[in-house]
Amino acid sequence: MPGINSGPDRHQCLGPILTLFLNDAKYVPSCYPDQPLADSGFSLAGRTDPVPANDDFRISAGFSFLTDAVDGFLARRFRVTSRAGTELDSLGDDLTVVAGVIGLFVFKMDLVRDQVVIVFMLSVLFLLHTIIALARFGQLTSFHTRMAKIAAISQAVFFIQLFLLPAPADWVFFIASGLTFLDLFEEIAMSLSLEECESDIKGWWEVRRRQKKGFDDHSHSAR
Fold first, then answer.
1. What backbone phi and psi angles, to 5 degrees, belong to 201?
2. Which residues pair with 142 in a beta bridge?
3. Is the alpha carbon torsion for 174, 177, 182, 183 positive or negative?
4. What's the mean pLDDT when you consider all of the chain?
5. CA–CA separation, 72 vs 86, rounded Å?
6. Using CA atoms, how far apart are residues 107 and 58, in angstroms rounded to an integer?
7. How sure is the predictor about 221, in pLDDT bands with cuts at 50, 70 and 90?
8. Residue 199 DSSP SS3
9. What is the pLDDT of residue 133?
10. 126 with 188: CB under 8 angstroms?
11. Angle, to 10 degrees, between the axis of helix 53-77 and the axis of helix 146-164?
């Protein structure tokens, strides 16, 4: 058993945990990389050498964000969409982003310190959007607007290049942050305007068009 001074590094523990959270892996890596394989319970397609936790997380995060960016398109392309699938897809997207943000704080804390204002504002907007959605609809929203899809792609590009490239570009962070700001503002406005949660709405402008059409129809019928 490892001694007190030979305990695991927090990155070595959190990396496998986040990996399990992202991709539902069917193994439990040990926090103690020096343990024998038989004691650690580690196995991955017959591998006999433990994968470094940070690399493990980066590969899983990149794969997860890549699949999140295309799963909705593939579902619509092959006509295998459903209301439950839409809601689960939105939940999975949110959990993947949360896992990416946790990885950001664990492995890229220098970026968080440099951009603390933007990170804080995005966190507040996301929390506000979640509270409004739960208060209005009793569930998380799954509008799947065009802006949400564009923001999701930008987030995927940001996290993939952040965790996989040795020198990620700063401008990708600012583009992803700006698009996420617009998406959150739009989702908040739609949550406050709609009477019930809907899916596959093109955007805020569609809600306004429908409301205007409904108002015009009501005005004509009252005459």
1. -95, 135
2. 199
3. positive
4. 74
5. 8
6. 10
7. low
8. strand
9. 94
10. no
11. 150
